[in-house]
């Protein structure tokens, strides 16, 4: 399951005083549990770019704290630097990383903008996906004239900020204005060429970048540049939407590269850019020998790339995520110039939980069994039920993958690949539930440690216990739903899959029923402690229905399996 993550990259108008920068970043990390990935100050620009990642609400809270601290510490009346700027916090984009849409980020950005204006008195323009008008999608339009133009722009129709508009005053003079918006993730990538020619690298870049190249008379490269009736250069667009690119020569590597920013990875995914640059290079007698990613990349970009190249090979994509990413790395030559370590380049891997407490799913089989057999009441039946479901889904996925590349079944690879992907999704869901079930039990244990001396403390304790008990009942119910969803996969594999593996589908059916029935026991015992009896009855009724369905589906699949053995 994808965790909901967004990135925030605020640019603060201070790049020379490390103490001010430290206080701003301390405010960010103290406000919410976010991961601070990078702090990049520039002395000439007098500007610091900060990058942090976390769950949406946490990122918004941390961004607000950073904007507030910057407004307290930075006086724009004294600011000078080489970079265009308009405020103490000059720009603050929210960027979807996983489990969140660009539209959701735009809505969060608008709410943040309103809060900044209302609570801090800072004028705010909304840009990119959060813009209220088409022209303000462009950051340069919002920031036109920079800080010095604010007295003219504020309180003037069509020029004033979206939030906090008013006559220019001393507060605005000190903080300046901020632009808050939402944009998609930008991937900075260089494509390595087997040439030293910057000119040819540039030609390839102009072929593919969205802006393209100037049109010339007769279509010749050296012809006169064509202009329109207003004297503007007429451009011939390139083939890749949402990209900017140039060619250059890198002394360190002794090769030319096409250097590209992919500003819209929905319009042009990384693998599409790779294939198109490869095509354009080949048309000019040049080869792309590898790819270099600059900075970080969202996991989905590599996973989508890996699946794309596996599909081109007519191979199943229902394989572990690590293997899919390995295919992406090898297919695009991400490790040509230096070792490519996903743990250091993929955002989601950079911010994984590195706590010293070992998760159940990270233990060896023996460690998991020993932990279960220990004197501790957790992990217990709920976690074991979830893991039985994991194994059932894994067996169905295995049969699908074996069927996808069975000799003579080449024309059916996509059918079985789709089933394998469904199996992986179920497996991932149940894997997360292995640890979540134990966490739910620990949540109940934590309530017992709450004080209960006063009436208010007893009331708070009772409320917390009800909430924890409901959660501890809903988690195994989710296990039941997920485990029950494996039956369609297992039946399809028993009926249509590789006949040599039909017994594996049968074992999977037995495991799936055990997972459903076992989690059902947990639902019933935990529901007994819920004070809201109507809710408890509803949860138990669903659990009982799922048990009946599981028993019937297991029986049907085993009959099918036995008929083929």
Account of the protein in words:
This protein has about 575 residues and is α+β, with helices and mostly antiparallel strands. It has 3 domains: about 5-180, Formiminotransferase-cyclodeaminase, Chain B, domain 1 (2-Layer Sandwich); about 185-350, Alpha-Beta Plaits; about 360-565, Up-down Bundle (Four Helix Bundle (Hemerythrin (Met), subunit A)). It contains 19 helices and 13 strands. It has helices spanning about 20-30, 55-75, 100-120, 140, 150-155, 170-175, 200-210, 270-285, 300-310, 320-330, 340-345, 345-350, 365-375, 380-405, 415-450, 455-485, 485-495, 500-525, 535-565, and strands spanning about 5-10, 10, 35-40, 45-55, 90-100, 125-130, 180, 185-195, 215, 235, 245-250, 255-260, 290-295. The strands form 3 sheets. Strands 1, 2, 3, 4, 5, 6 and 7 form a 7-stranded mixed β-sheet that branches. It has a 4-stranded antiparallel β-sheet with strand order 11-12-8-13. A two-stranded antiparallel ribbon has the order 9-10. β3 (about 35-40) and β4 form a beta hairpin. α18 runs antiparallel to α19 (about 535-565). It is flat and about 80 Å long.
